[in-house]
Write a structure and sequence with these properties.
The protein has two helices and no strands. It is mainly α and about 60 residues long.
Length: about 60
Amino acid sequence: MILRLLLFGLIAVVGVSLAAWVLTRDRRYLAFAWKVVRAAVIVLLALGLMFVLERALTAV
């Protein structure tokens, strides 16, 4: 449930940032959207790694 809320927030932030970039053509909004996406990918990879490690450790 929490991951879904975070994903919805991510989509909203990136969407608003991209809309602001389209309307203003200010590249800082595009850079912000890219930073948010990179941070989200890193967090998702870390969570996925934790799930894999949990499965591997409980299988032993």
